[in-house]
């Protein structure tokens, strides 16, 4: 009998939100590549259906508004009706805007919190009963952000939501561990998606690696956390930011790898 390759997801059923493009699409594609069956949820119906059709028989699309409990219930029901179980939930769907706190529209703050924080909360409520009914426990991966681990100028609303998602992840890990359900958070930095198109460059001076990331790099991390290779990992937060949250890079890199660089706050 051939052993399943490490990190593979054969026999796993996953529901991925925000899967019509960007990181969500990359996650769905990586899961299918590793043998999972995936339900792609998104409000971008045409785009989501195209991705699911491209992935073939191991993927289905469902219109999903993560702020609506009824929409979540429909997505979970479709998953169970189609594949018989639900093993993995990836809460990836999010909206992103930047504004200084004093200029932020309170309505926009509420919208970001509802999609980026309340959405995953509702997703956990909807998916966990199905996971408990299954034979293999479950795994939940919440996509937080570098903005959820450090303050970033003009990220008051978005950062608040992503900080909150870290807290939700840790609490869910404590509450669901007894049921064999693991909950972890991924904290991406700048990733080359439609949400970061305004940067207009692949360079990222604040990251130790000097570049922004690729969606596929985040997808591989999420797949690992969803797999049995991460069977003793829960309540964890994994940064995928090229080292941007490790500390401040110098304005100019020291030559020869030694000495001290010129800091941005030095006169």
Concise description?
With 267 residues, the protein is α/β, with parallel strands linked by helices. The protein contains 6 helices and 7 strands, in the order E-H-E-H-E-H-E-H-E-H-E-H-E.
Explain what the structure shows:
The structure is a single chain. The chain has 267 residues and is of the alpha/beta class. It has a single domain, classed as Rossmann fold (3-Layer(aba) Sandwich), CATH 3.40.50.720. It is built from six helices and seven strands; from the N terminus they run E-H-E-H-E-H-E-H-E-H-E-H-E. Strands 3-2-1-4-5-6-7 form a seven-stranded parallel beta sheet, sandwiched between helices. Helix 6 links the parallel strand 6 and strand 7. The C terminus is likely disordered.
Main attributes?
Rossmann fold, seven-stranded parallel beta sheet, alpha/beta, 267 residues
- Structure class: alpha/beta
CATH superfamily: NAD(P)-binding Rossmann-like Domain
Helix and strand element order:
EHEHEHEHEHEHE
Shape: globular
Largest sheet: 7 strands, parallel
Supply the CATH architecture: 3-Layer(aba) Sandwich
Radius of gyration: 19 Å
Euclidean distance between termini CA atoms:
66 Å
Fraction in helix: 25-40%
CATH class: Alpha Beta
Strand order of the largest sheet: 3-2-1-4-5-6-7
> Runs with pLDDT <50, length 5+?
255-267
* Strands, total number: 7
